[in-house]
Amino acid sequence: MRYKKGKRGMIRIKWIREFSDFLKRLFFKNEVRGPAIYCKSCGSKEAVFWKSIKSKYSLNGRVIESVFSIRRCLHCNLKRVDPLLTQDMLLKLYDEDYYRQYLDNADARKGYFTDMLNTLGGLVRKGKILDVGCGDGLFLRLAREDGWDVYGIEPSGTAANLAKERHGVDIFNGLPEESGFKKGDFNAVTLFNVLGHMRDPAPCVGALKELLTGDGLLVIETPNFRNIWYRYRLLENKLLGIDDLHIPRMIYWFDLDSLSSMLNRFGFEIVGVKFINYGAKTPAPKPGVPFIKKAYLYYRSIVKASCNALSALCGSGDHIRVMCRRRG
Ligand SMILES: [Zn+2]
Questions:
Q1: Which fold has domain 6-33+92-326?
Q2: Ligand 1 being an ion, which residues bring their Cβ within 5 A of it?
Q3: 103: burial class by Cβ within 10 Å (0-12, 13-18, 19+)?
Q4: What are the tens digits of pLDDT across the range 232-261?
């Protein structure tokens, strides 16, 4: 893990992107223009078909197998799942089963959140912090123990109840643009792996800008889909039909270009970028898991470790953490 400060960091990895674009043009010529989709990041209407993804998900007690399209913006490279489910359908996908995987993984998440609090401590004065899409509230509990005055927003009623019951954190159950929090009141606003799950992230980013103090810090962490680990998972999906891309929950696929484009459009200045490669360790399989599945899990952890090493060598990561402030 290492920091790349603003524009300088982006220039450092520019040649890697250009080379990857060159290879893409050489080997992937399947881009087909379809009906215009308004890009939520840069506002362009030029999007092309990029890939099809096989997906299997549960909705209203039924298992649904579908194929979704991914559309790519020609200007900023933001990718979007098509078609979009309605907001009501999306909320139903975030049930207790969905959050259980995170509850079972609390120790690893504590390390991850502590790293985030250390990042914040060096960049902004401690005061009020708002975590958007705060899930079960673990980060807010740790932030409170670290001396922050904590607030949360969570659209899922299931997660909002978990936050109250497990960590005693009282949060607003709804969308950021509906929250009614006082403008210019927060020293830090955080979104961890949330932006890509929003049906319409643009009004949220605009609303969050208003909530920050003049020198407040917005921190967004999101999967970096311009990374070898996601390329591998796309290949697995195509060849073996393995559904590991969280579709249709994961709606927007960001990389540094598309995220920067969105933040610039809403008047933010990027002050720091950190690429992160999350751990390759596989949790011990539960008793009774068939041998073939165990072998696959170990194989996958080896692939992940290899992707991490290659990614780190190129100065990239499977996640991007961007720190920014209001411009002007
Ligand atoms: Zn765009």
A1: Rossmann fold (3.40.50)
A2: 39, 41-42, 44, 73, 75-76, 78
A3: middle
A4: 999 988 888 888 888 888 999 999 999 999
